[in-house]
Model the fold of this input.
Amino acid sequence: MDELLRLLKENALESPANLAKMLGLSEKDVKDKIQEYEKNGVIRGYQAIVNEDSLNLDKVSAVIEVKITPEREGGFNGIAGRISRFPEVDAMYLMSGAFDLLVFVSGRNLKEVASFISEKLATIEGVVSTATHFMLKIYKEKGVLMAAHDENERLQVSP
Amino acid sequence: MKTNDSKSHRDYIATHLKGVPRSGIRDFFDIVSSRKDIISLGIGEPDFATPWGIREASIYALDRGATSYTSNLGLESLRSAISDYISDKFGVRYDPASEILVTVGVSEALDLAVRAIVNPGDEVIYHEPSYVCYAPIVTFAHGKSVAVQTRPEDGFVLERDMIEKKLTDRTKALLINFPTNPTGATLNRGQLEGIAKLACERDLLVVTDEIYSELTYEGERMSIASMPGMKDRTLLLHGLSKAWAMTGFRLGYACGRRDLIEAMMKIHQYTMMCAPILSQKAGIEALRNHDADVERMRRAYEKRRNYIVSSLNEMGLSCHMPKGAFYAFPDIRSCGLSSKDFALRLLDEENVACVPGTAFGSSGEGFLRCSYATDIEEIKEAMKRMAAFVERGARNAERGPTPFS
Ligand SMILES: Cc1ncc(COP(=O)(O)O)c(C=O)c1O
Done:
C-alpha cells in the first residue's frame, strides 16, 4: 500500500505539510495525490473512531448472518446491493462458509433492530435465513483498543 | 583492641575501575528525572510495546509452567530459530549446537566477547562516537580501548585506512556497530569489504554489534560476517531489544566460531547461567513469526526520521540523513554552545531532553542525539520547541557575539 494511504489510515487529520515531511515529498505532491485518491474512489471518506460505549447512547448493534440464494444473473451482488443500501446497515461483507453475508446493523433499541430484520431484511426475496447476534461490549475497533491500553513507563533518558 | 563496628577507611575499589567515568547518559538522566512534563528525545529504546503475539507467547509459556533454568547455551529451539533467522537475513549459517550462545541482551554478549579474547594490555579498536559501553568493557577486561574518530563530513563512516592508523602489534580485535548508535551511520559493501580484508591480512577478530540491523532505511543490509573469509574471524552479536521492541526481555545472542562461543559460554555459565526462560520463549516466537511487526515499526521510524531530519534542517541545525537505527544526530556548532550546554539550556528553557553528543565520546562534541523512537506527536511538539530555542539564540546573536549567553 502507498505509504501516504497508510499514514492517512492511522491519522486522517495529519496535515499535508507534515505528511510531506514524513514521506520526503512536497506539500503539493501530497495534496495532489490525496485529491487523486478521493476522485478515483480509493479514499471514500474520513471518520473519527469513537468509543461509543463511553457515551451512554441509546443504541444497540447486531451482527446478522444471512443466507441468500444467488441469482442466475448477478450472483450475490443484486441482493447484497439491496441490503447494503439500508441506512440501518453499517457494514456488510460477503463471506465464505456456512452463510453468505455478514451484516452489521444498528438501531436505537432492540425492538427497532428486530423489526428491521423481520420486516425489511428477512422479507427480501432470495433471503433464505438470518441468525442475529447482539453486541454487548466493544473491545477493539478499526485496530484501536477501546477497553484497554498498554501501560509502560520508559526511563526518560537511556543509552 | 579494635571493635567490630569500627569504620573502615580502606579503599576497596579495584584500581582499573577508577579511570572509567560514569556514563554521560546517567549524569544527564539524573538531571532530567528531577523534572516534570518534559518531552524526551533522549530515550534509546522503542516507544512501541512488544508486539502482542510475542508477549502472548511468553504468557503462554508462563501458564504452562516454564519457570526453570535452561541449558547454558540457551533453549535448543531458540538456537535453531536464531540459526535459521541469521541464515535467512544475513546469509551465514551457524550450527545451533556449538556456534550460538543466548545471552542476557547484547550487553552481556559484548562483555563476554571482550572478556573471552582480551589478555591484559591487548588492544581493541572501536569507532567513536559510539554506544557507551565499548570502551569501559575493554577496560574491565584489563585491555586497552583504542578509539577511531569518525567524521561528520563523511557521515560518520569507518574506512579501512582510519583503522590502519591505529593498529599496533597488540591490536587483537575490532569492535564495530552499524547502523551506529548515536549517528545512524551504515557502511556500504565496499567499506565493509575493505575492513574485512584488513581483518584477514592482520588476523584480527571483528566483533560486530548488529542490534540495529533490521532498522536500516537506505541501502543494502549486510553484515561483515558474510564477507569472504570472515565467518571464522567474526563474532556476530545481535538481540531482540530494538527491532522487536523487547528491551525489557533482556535477550541477545552471539554467533561465531565454536572455540570463541565455548570460551564465552565458560564465563556465561559461571556468571549468568542462562537468559530468562520466559524471554527465550518469547524470542522463539519473535524470530519465527514476527517479521511483519518488525517491518511495521521500521516503516514508522522511517517516517519519523524524515520528519525530524527535515525539521532540524529547517530550523538551521544541519543534520545528515541517518541511514539506520533511530537517532538523528544534528550538528549544533552553529549555535556557539557546547553539546552539554545546549542540552541543558534546551531542557531548562523548553523542557525538551536530548542527549549531548559527548555522552558517546569526545568526538560527539558539537552534536546532539535526538531519538525518534518517540511518538510522532511528541516529535512534532519537540521540534516546535527546539525551533523556538534556536530562533531565540539566533536573534540574540545579532545583538552580541555569543549567541546563547
Ligand atoms: C549499539 C548498542 N548495542 C547494544 C545495546 C544494548 O542492548 P541490549 O538491550 O541487547 O543489551 C544498545 C542499547 O542501547 C545499543 O544501542
Q: What stands out?
A: Chain A touches chain B at residues 3, 6-7, 18, 21-24, 150, 152, 154-159 (CB under 8 Å). Chain A has a mean pLDDT of 93.
